[in-house]
Amino acid sequence: LLKVLSRIDSILRSSRAPPLIFRPSNKGPVQNSIKENGQGCGFEHLPLTIEMWADQLIALKDLHRSLRKLSLELLPWNTKDPQENRESIRVEDLQLIVDAILEELEHKEKNSQTQSVQALSAIVSHFQKLFDVNSLNGVYPRMNEVYIKLEEMTNAMRNLHELLELDSSAPPTVVVDTVGKLCDIINKNVTEQVQQLLGTQDIHSIINKLEEHECFFPPFQALIQDLLCLLEISNVDDILPAVQNLK
Prior knowledge:
Shape: rod-shaped
Distance between the termini: 164 Å
Oligomer: single chain
Number of helices: 7
């Protein structure tokens, strides 16, 4: 038993032992630690240390179980655990799981960066096709131009919604239909006003009156011009007084 205890004590005192384990106050050799009264042999710290190691081994198994759950979440295809049939778990086993997880995360990050670059390149190419941009240098100016045009159109649509008393959620088709109806109403009113002005409700009569006016007005205009030149006046209103003076 003394040899076993001495062996354990030498392990505890070695440089490979964890730095936080319990250390006895007696630093002498085992043979010098035996007291004269026969009570105590210098190994009183061993039970505490061994209990601590036992707790750490149990915690190591719990940590291994947690890492396995994490591994199954991140690496669902890697269902086999080479350490699952072992009674004892080593730190190296845990390190293998951690390394596998880190490698997979790095691989996903690289793939994500590659996909991001490809996605951005596809977006830029699509923008060039949509807005007829021949070079990458023209992308930013065209973006600014599109943004300005979009703002102008948005403001115009907002103003039309307010003027036409439409709901702000009304689509552009509703706005166009409403404007078209207003134009029809205005055109109808203009037609009615022209009909009232010309004293006829028949479109053919309106055409005839316009044709008569076209036939009559040029000769009448030429006659007026001749009278102005003959009477040496410049105002049409002066024609009648000038003719009366000639009597």
